Amino acid sequence: MKNGIQRKIAVVLAGAAITLTGACDAGQPAADGIVTITVNGLPPSTDPLNRANFQADLKTFQAQHRDIRIIAHEGFMDPQTFAAKLAGGQLEDVFYVYFTDTQSVIAKHQASDITSELAGIPAVKDIKPQLMKVFSDSAGKVYGLPSANYSLGLIYNRMLFSKAGLDPNKPPTSWADVRADAKRISALGGGG
Questions:
Q1: Quick one: 92 exposed, middle or buried, by C-beta within 10 A (0-12, 13-18, 19+)?
Q2: What is the mean pLDDT of each run of 10 residues along the chain (192 residues)?
Q3: What predicted TM-score, i.e. pTM, was given to this entire model?
């Protein structure tokens, strides 16, 4: 199911990429009517299975959309060069961005509103609303889609908390709390 949704999203992204280009000529039809866009995320040749899957998806998309040519580049976001490439117009038309950077990209108008392109894509409704907020502005306009995500959680041993004199009904809510609780638990000795 995850791969199916990811593939549908990849197709949506490729289709939406026509509007993702801001200040450059990419995404504009050439004299022959073909739109050329660049994307990143092509797995490296050292990952032959995922590279083959990516290329198969690309081939399928281009067979269905003969007026769109996609040039895929290896790699994802490089935090060392991302901001400079984006500001200088050197980033691909469709690119990966860390969740922590999306609102900055939106606020600086470095991504285009793709809300209307997503309207008829059923797979978009399968994405958790809180993830969609990451790629949306305050007016609810969408500027990108998540391709993968993860959730963090804290699992703790309630009995061990009680043993250390901590309230198991009040787990830590900050990293400072985690450190303080860990010291109390460590003081028990014997590995807990």
A1: buried
A2: 47 43 50 88 93 94 92 87 88 87 91 90 89 93 84 84 94 92 91 58
A3: 0.62
